[in-house]
Design brief:
The protein is an alpha+beta fold. 40% of the residues lie in helices and 22% in strands.
């Protein structure tokens, strides 16, 4: 978990191994998307106590958060801004690939392989949300 900010490292270090592995893999995809899609640097921080990423450039995209909780111990959760249609877009693009509340939360089962393609598309859609709206 090198290169994680201390607050993120301390949080994720307390998670069970499957959640930590899925998180680190998803984080790697998120950071790769930021580079390959020419989004620019991301701010990585804790938002609402959850690891979060957002483009530094204003009006580029929205925040993407990941979290694990003992309330849903078998899932890694991704959260997007509820004022967007991103969760709905993901349902259309990847039907049945993960649990989706259709509004802001996407849940990935820890027993299944992480859907790399879905994570990559979610990150790209989130980080370019305002670019795509114009």
């Amino acid at each position: 978990m090198d290169q994680l900010a201390p607050a993120l490292h301390d949080l994720v270090a307390r998670w069970p191994d499957p959640a930590r592995r899925h998180f680190l893999a998803a984080r790697g995809i998120i950071l790769d998307v930021s580079e390959t899609a020419q989004i620019g640097p991301l701010d990585e921080s804790l938002k609402w106590g959850q690891p979060a990423w957002r483009p530094r450039r204003p009006r580029t995209g929205v925040t993407l958060r990941l979290d694990w909780s003992d309330k849903t111990p078998d899932r890694l959760m991704a959260f997007v801004d509820c004022k967007t249609d991103l969760a709905d877009q993901m349902s259309t693009r990847f039907p049945g690939k993960f649990h989706n509340d259709g509004r802001r939360a996407l849940a990935f089962d820890l027993k299944d392989p992480l859907p790399d393609d879905a994570i990559a598309q979610l990150a790209q859609l989130a980080f370019t949300y305002y670019r795509l709206k114009t």
